[in-house]
Amino acid sequence: MKNNIGRLHVLTDTIVQNKFSHPDLARMAIDGGANTIQFRQKKGSSLDMFRNAETIMQLCRDASVTMIVNDRIDIALAVDADGVHLGQSDIPLPVARKLLGAQKLMGGSATDFDELRKVIEGGADYVGFGPVFGTMSKENPGNPRGISFMKEVVERSSIPVVAIGGIKLNHVKELFATGIHGIAVISAICCEPDPAKATQRFLTAIKK
C-alpha cells in the first residue's frame, strides 16, 4: 500500500455550497488537519480549473498534504498533483497509469462489485466506494449501500477502500469498524460554517 492514501479525504466543491472557493476549502481543511485534499471541480473552464488546482497544489505542498485531482488527468499532470481519482466514465485506469507513472497515486470509483473488480484490475491504489448513504453531491449517485454492505466490500477488495457518499460525523465509528481504510467527505465539511473545525471533528472521531 502506498503510504500517502489518507484516512480523511476532503473533497472541495462549489456546487453544494458557494460560500467558499475551492482554494478556500482546501486551506481550511488543511488548517483543520486533513491529510488528503481532493480537488473536485465539475463546472468551469479548463483554465479556471488549472488556476484553482495550481493554488491548491501549492497549499498542499507547503503543508505536506496529499493533493489529488478528480476526473481531470490533464489538470493533475499540469500542476504535478500527487495523484488522480477517476470515475467509471473517465479515461481508463491503465491508460492513466501510463501517463502518471508508477509513483503517483491513482484512485478509482466503484458502486458495485463489478466496478470494484474493474478498479482493482485497472491498477488503482485505492477504491472510492459508495454511495454509503444518500447524497446530493453527485448526479445519479446510485442506491445507498449502507454501513453493513461496506464490510463485504472490504473483504472482497485487495486494495484500500475509501468510503464516500453522505458520510456524517456520527457514521465514522461504525464505518471504520467495517475495516475501511478511510472516508471521503464533501457536504459534512464544505457546507459547515467553519470547515476547519468540521475537519478537526472528523479527525478526532477517526483517531478514536
CATH superfamily: Aldolase class I
CATH class: Alpha Beta
Helix content: 40-55%
Mean pLDDT: 94
| SSE pattern | EHEHEHEHEHEHEHEHH
| Structural class determined from secondary elements | alpha/beta
Low-pLDDT parts are: none
Reported for the largest beta sheet, the result is:
8 strands, parallel, barrel
- Order of strands in the sheet with most strands: 1-2-3-4-5-6-7-8
Please report the total strand number as a whole number: 8
What is the number of helical segments per DSSP (H or I, 4+ residues)?
Answer: 9
Walkthrough of the structure:
This protein is an alpha/beta fold and 208 residues long. It has a single domain (8-207), classed as TIM Barrel (Alpha-Beta Barrel). The protein is 40% helix and 17% strand. The chain is built from nine helices and eight strands. An eight-stranded parallel beta barrel has the order 1-2-3-4-5-6-7-8, surrounded by six helices. Helix 1 (22-31) packs across helix 9. The longest helix is centred in the N-terminal third of the chain and has 18 residues, at 46-63. It starts with 7 loop residues before the first strand and ends with a helix.
